[in-house]
């Protein structure tokens, strides 16, 4: 298992090595998808993942931002 960002980790045994919130099986892409569909962090926690925190959700956003920034610099 590798911690690749604050609160984000990759484990080949969990979701085929896709990034998840550390200590959970919640994929980063699921949280980002819910945000993209207009849900607030509070709604995500209340309606989908009551075992994560707003800081976990913010870590997903920071992780995605870092990936995008890395792509831009690679061009």
Keywords, please?
single chain, 75 residues, alpha+beta, Arc Repressor Mutant, subunit A, 3-stranded antiparallel β-sheet, 3 helices, 12% strand, globular
Please write out the topology.
Layout: E1 2-5, E2 8-10, E3 20-21, H1 28-36, H2 41-47, H3 54-74
Antiparallel strand pairs: 1-2, 2-3
Helix pairs in contact: 1-3
Model description:
It comes from Fraserbacteria sp. (strain RBG_16_55_9). It is built from 3 helices and 3 strands; from the N terminus they run E-E-E-H-H-H. The termini are far apart. Helix content is 49%, strand content 12%. With 75 residues, the chain is an alpha+beta fold. Helix 1 packs across helix 3. A 3-stranded antiparallel sheet has the order 1-2-3. 20% of the residues are buried. The chain has one domain: Arc Repressor Mutant, subunit A (Orthogonal Bundle), CATH 1.10.10.10.
Gist of the model:
This protein has 3 helices and 3 strands. It is α+β, with helices and mostly antiparallel strands. Helix 1 crosses helix 3 (54-74).
Q: How many domain units?
A: 1
Helical stretch tally:
3
CATH topology: Arc Repressor Mutant, subunit A
Please give the alpha-carbon distance between the first and last residues: 29 Å
Q: Give the percentage of residues in beta strands.
A: 5-15%
- CATH C-level: Mainly Alpha
Kindly state the number of beta strands: 3
Radius of gyration: 12 Å
Helix content: 40-55%
The biggest sheet amounts to:
3 strands, antiparallel
CATH architecture: Orthogonal Bundle
């Amino acid at each position: 298992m590798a911690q690749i960002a604050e609160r984000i980790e990759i484990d080949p045994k969990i979701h085929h090595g896709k990034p998840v919130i550390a200590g959970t099986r919640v994929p980063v892409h699921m949280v980002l998808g819910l945000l993209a569909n207009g849900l607030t962090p509070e709604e995500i926690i209340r309606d989908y993942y009551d075992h994560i925190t707003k800081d976990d959700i913010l870590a997903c956003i920071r992780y995605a931002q870092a990936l995008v920034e890395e792509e831009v610099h690679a061009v």
